[in-house]
Amino acid sequence: MKRLLLTSILVIMMSLGVFFISENNGDKFEIVSIKENKNYNNKNIKIPILMYHSINDNDPENKMVLPINMFKEQMLWLNDNDFNSLTLDEAIMALENDLIPENPIVITFDDGYVDNYENAFPILKENNIKATFFVITNFVGDGYYMTADMLKEMQSTGMEIENHTIDHARLSLLSRENIYNEIKGAQEFLRDNIGVRGDYLAYPFGWYSNKVINIANELNIKAAVTIQKGKISYKSNRYKLKRIEVDPMSIEEFEKLLS
Ligand SMILES: [Zn+2]
Fold first, then answer.
1. Domain spans, the chain
2. CA of 164 to the centre of ligand 1 (A)
3. How close is the Cα of 109 to the center of ligand 1, in Å?
4. Rounded to the nearest whole angstrom, what is the distance from the C-alpha of residue 6 to the centroid of ligand 1?
5. 11 CA distance to ligand 1 centroid (A)?
6. Residues 6 or more apart from 132 whose CB is under 8 A from it?
7. Residues 6+ away with beta carbon under 8 Å from 58
8. Residue 145 CA to ligand 1 centre (angstroms)
9. Measured in angstroms, how far is the CA atom of residue 4 from the centroid of ligand 1?
């Protein structure tokens, strides 16, 4: 009976144009992120990509580390204000197909710290928010960093796991061969261990060059994010996507970042 009711609700919602990005995989959690699938066809629309690193209470002086309650407050605020979280892949597809939902936002985490799984993941789930995690593949499972099982679990609930190279080297300083190996090696790791393509790249330390971009393109990287500040739009170069770094700040400052 419950199942029948759920199925009917799903059919009605789908006929109304409610767009489901991912389904649950057996537990109660389900991300229904895009609340309305409207085609605004607005070439001026901009999408903010937020950049986080660590979420924990152990390092209050470090601006790359956000206290758990502050992160929670921010995700609650996004939920209360009807933001539609997209993975980076969904955001790029939305830009290419003129299908950007109202209040779009992309949440990204760099490096793959274990606190992303322990502290951020439960808060993201509570608020039906999805995120993209750029992991350094040689560090996966190495104490401070998430294990392959954690990454797989997050991926199965709609989170996106992407490429932050194998060693976190400053790519623009490397030889052509080493740049190739850094990106390709991470793609292979992600394919073999997580079952994803790893075709979106975050440049370690934000360092890139034309040579890096050419190699990324050769390796079928669809888009790459930097640490330059700004939002993305139709006009953005796919290999130079800007982001907005979130340091410890008040909720009023957070609101201002997105305005
Ligand atoms: Zn990094």
1. 48-258
2. 7
3. 9
4. 42
5. 42
6. 87, 88, 89, 106, 107, 108, 109, 159, 160, 161, 162, 200
7. 65
8. 12
9. 46
The DSSP-derived string for 38-80 is -----TT--B-EEEE-EE-SS-TT-TTEE-HHHHHHHHHHHHH
Ligand 1 centre distance from Cα of residue 202 (Å): 8
CA 65-159-107 angle, to 5 degrees, is 45
Separation of 34 CA from ligand 1 center, angstroms?
28
In tens digits, the chain (259 residues) has pLDDT values of: 444 444 444 444 444 433 333 333 333 333 434 444 445 556 778 999 999 999 999 998 999 999 999 999 999 999 999 999 999 999 999 999 988 999 999 999 999 999 999 999 999 999 999 999 999 999 999 999 999 999 999 999 999 999 999 999 999 999 999 999 999 999 999 999 999 999 999 999 999 999 999 999 999 999 999 999 999 999 999 999 999 999 999 999 999 999 8
DSSP codes, 91-147: HHHHHHTT-PPSSEEEEEEEE-BHHIIIIIHHHHHHTT---EEEE-GGGTTSSSB--
- CATH number for the domain formed by residue range(s) 48-258: 3.20.20.370
- Find the 37 Cα to ligand 1 centroid distance in Å: 33
